[in-house]
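Sequence and fold
=================
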Amino acid sequence: MQTNLFLLASLTLLLAVNVSSRAAEAPAVIPIWPGEAPGEKGDIGEEKDMTKEKDNLISGKPLIRLGNVSKPTITVYKPAPDKDTGAAVLVCPGGGYHILALDLEGSEVCEWLNSIGVTGVLLKYRVPARKGMERYAAPLQDAQRAMGIVRHRAKEWNIDPKRIGILGFSAGGHLSAMASTAYESRTYPPVDDADKESCRPDFSVLIYPAYLTAKDDLTKLAPELKVTAQTPPAFLLMTQDDGIKVENVMTYGLALKAVKVPYELHTYPKGGHGYGLRPSENNVSHWPARCAEWMKSQGFLDKK
């Protein structure tokens, strides 16, 4: 009897250690393209953190401003197995299509997603904008390709292929809106079976998104955004003192309303731009809780 109890205790301990080990595994980094990305000429320069000593801190902490990205990747952050809901979100950092705020609007967000049981997939897309191309052209190729890869490997990663969203900040919010409205065909020649999967996100989360309105009329959508009844539902957030203009989320929300696509819109008086989910004295800091509530209400956090 004592031997059996000892064996049972040992197996329980081994299982606990194994689960803990799996939860602590380093995120997997996966190249998006086999070989060079479409149209790359090798003339971008060395990928590196562009942060300078004089650059501002966010909530008293520095951030990574990654530039010269020519080899895009996805980094897969898995939640602890006992929390895993099967949902996943492709995370698109901002940076004006010039750099990527890789931790502030990337890895830190994936860790938050893990805390609510969601697989975070950090997209390191190409920046800066390529000469002779729309600023979002190469990033959109990367986002479409990444979404296809996640769906293609959904079973392997314990992901529900019908609950894969996209979340973006600032320029990454524009990229997320592009991925949500330009998904019917790939913007690059197909590479492999991953490109046979749908690249339409099942939902979108746009946090202080940029460039969603026409340059000369804030009441109109940017011409590249084609909102239809098939555009995924959205969670939208911005502050009224954001220099990028709160009309970005209002105009996008009204476009969704016009075609009966459900959305939730939050605006706050203060908070500015580029805060990620780092805390401050402003109420906008509570947006992660509001977003999690919205995801839960939409059924995206239901366990498989």
Remarks:
- Residues 1-24 have pLDDT under 50 and may be disordered.
